Amino acid sequence: MSGSAFHRFANPSRFLRLASKVLPWLAAATAIGFAVGLYFGLVASPLDYQQGETVRIMYIHVPSAWIAMFAYGWVGLASAAALIWRHPLADVAAEAASPVGATFTFVALVSGSLWGRPMWGTYWAWDARLTSFLLLFFLYLGHLALLNAFDDRQRGRRAAAILAVVGMIDLPIIKFAVDWWNTLHQPASVLKMGGPSIDPSMLRPLLIMALACQCYFFLVTFMRMRTLLLEARQRTLLYRQNTARPRNTATMTTGGAGR
Amino acid sequence: MSEYFAMGGYAAFIWPSYGVAAVLLVVLFMLSARRLQAAERALPKSSDGDKDAAEDE
Lengths: 259, 57
What we know:
Largest interface: A-B, 45 and 33 residues
Shape of chain B: rod-shaped
Number of strands of chain A: 0
Radius of gyration of chain A: 21 Å
Radius of gyration of chain B: 22 Å
Helix content of chain A: over 70%
Low-confidence stretches of chain A: 251-259
Order of helices and strands of chain B: HHH
Number of domains of chain B: 1
Number of domains of chain A: 1
Largest sheet of chain B: none
Largest sheet of chain A: none
Distance between the termini of chain A: 13 Å
Oligomer: heterodimer
Strand content of chain B: under 5%
């Protein structure tokens, strides 16, 4: 079904081996990234001339929001690959990343709310950016709920994948909400035409924290992918043991890409 | 020192932002690590993805 080159390149066994080599490095990069990022963010960066100390919330709020969206793109694209090519690694990639993305989405919502209270005078407003971002959180929750809603694992993954792909429409809406509508939320100051309009002393902790969050995402996602693959292998082994008596070809073929 | 933790009067907003993030990210990492360990322990050594690469190829 899938192209044989692609299949060989991204086969589960190869991923398992690769992941066990990469994970320690990702763990180290995540730890160092957060240590350095927090030092710059919470200690060695200036106050904002309008916002004072509250600008420090930016260094956790903005990276969380970025990774929340990146993670949803990952889940959506992996789900599309799973629907089109039925590649076993694609389903696993989507399922593993979803809780990580949901966590970052929640962190972005909470930290944004705690930033909004002193700066806007309210914890929450139903403006386009905040509402579309809240929708992202519900998309994650729906995705996770669908994954676990069926006794038949494959059916759950299919339903979740369809939701994930359709939900990708929310990503450009979040990104451009601040341009398309009048929002309480400020427009972009880093990822925009003409380059960042933010002082290097504040851009530095922001980007280091973003890098740390990105490393964390890959670390935990790869750990969870490895877990899902090992668990699937364990199920296959048990299934083979239980059906091993007349050892015919039918039991031999249950190992690979599922049904 | 206590002046630092006061965060110019915004301590009640800044520290919980980082606190929520830290707690959730650490908990998610620990749950994921524990489940990975359990999965690694449940499988016999030979099928840990190092030996049976031939199976999928």
